[in-house]
Amino acid sequence: MEGPLQTFVHVCHENGQWMSRLPEKLWDIPLYNLALPGSHDTMTYCLDKSSAVSVNESKLVKFLNKCLPCIVRPIIMKWSITQVLTVTEQLEAGVRYLDFRIAHKANDPSMNLYFVHMVYTTVTVQDILWEILRWLETHPQEVVIIACRNFDGLTKRLHNHLVACIKEIFQCKLCPRNVVPTLRTMWHLGHQVIVSYEEELELEKHCELWPPIPYWWGNKTSTRALIRYLERMKRMGRPGKFFVAGINLTENLRYILVHPFGSLKKLTLQSLPCLKIWIKQQNPGPKKKCINIIAGDFIGNNDFVKDVIELNTKINTPLHCQSELEQIAFHSQLPNL
């Protein structure tokens, strides 16, 4: 155990400064034309086992959790946790896109905001934003994209509070949306944070907030089906700016019932070898079939972050997204799943 753990920590440390180590020829390319590693449901490593179930969950889940908590709660936890590394560890590992599902607890009179994935986290949003700031201050040439999403239970007052916290904490590190976000420009201006925000009224009021970042979510339990979905989205063409290709598999009730001893971690780990092949076939860039952010679950496994970062070396040669021959070669490497 000791050897692999030491190797893993070493790899994480190397990736902590990867943006600052990119060759100068990439400094003037917008970040939405580079390959960026991301984490899906970033904050699920600190879900609260004693928390109430989210108000947005189905009545059936709430009922079962209330009647059979000793059985249902462990199942919820097994299928809700998507990450085991803390946010600082994820950043140090090289993740540059953070997927924040933000919520306010029902019947909570305070202004405290949490993260949510079926249940709420033990930490508040404000505490995590300060943690990110502390990391950025020791990594002055790294840029982080924070996607603020979902907003379960947030009123207009709570939105105002959240945006005020974001602006107070990051201040001049926030990159306004009228800036073309190349590394050279952001380093020159001292910007390190891009915040996308899924609430149109707040976007209209604050130039520091970026529009929602499209997320290609396959909603699949099968690796092969997920890859087919991602390839179909690529054929339709990438968005013009930031977007995410999600390589995260998603369980459903039928899958959970058929796999009573399974978990999201088991489902993810068995998919990684095939997804690793797919990742290595991708190309960053502005062309129709190119990728930008690739986000996954359990990002510390199987060299996921390293593989995504290394895609940027392809920009040194004339960009070409996959030809028909590359597609055939890729699919021939996939085992039957």
Key traits:
disordered N terminus, TIM Barrel, 10-stranded mixed sheet, 337 residues, 14% strand, 41% helix, alpha/beta
What does this structure look like?
The chain contains 13 helices and ten strands. By secondary structure, the protein is α/β, with parallel strands linked by helices. It has a single domain (13-332), classed as Phosphatidylinositol (PI) phosphodiesterase (TIM Barrel). Strands 1, 2, 3, 4, 5, 6, 7, 8, 9 and 10 form a ten-stranded mixed β-sheet that branches. The longest helix is centred in the last third of the chain and has 17 residues, at 264-280. 37% of the residues are buried. Mean pLDDT is 90; it is low at 1-11. This is Phosphatidylinositol-specific phospholipase C X domain-containing protein.
Measured as a percent range, the helix fraction is 40-55%
CATH H-level superfamily: Phosphatidylinositol (PI) phosphodiesterase
Radius of gyration: 20 Å
What series of H and E elements makes up the topology? HEHHHEEEHEHHEHEEHEHHEHH
Pfam family, one: PI-PLC_X
Protein name: Phosphatidylinositol-specific phospholipase C X domain-containing protein
GO biological process, one term: lipid metabolic process
InterPro entries: PI-PLC_domain, PLC-like_Pdiesterase_TIM-brl, PLCXD1/2/3
Itemize the secondary structure elements and their pairings:
Blueprint: H1 2-15, E1 36-39, H2 59-67, H3 69-80, H4 87-93, E2 97-103, E3 114-117, E4 119-124, H5 125-137, E5 144-152, H6 156-170, H7 183-189, E6 193-197, H8 200-205, E7 209-210, E8 215-216, H9 223-236, E9 244-246, H10 253-258, H11 264-280, E10 293-296, H12 304-310, H13 324-333
Parallel strand pairs: 1-2, 1-10, 2-5, 5-6, 6-7, 8-9, 9-10
Antiparallel strand pairs: 2-3, 3-4
Helix pairs in contact: 1-4, 2-3, 5-6, 11-12
Protein name: Phosphatidylinositol-specific phospholipase C X domain-containing protein
GO biological process, one term: lipid metabolic process
Organism: Hirundo rustica rustica
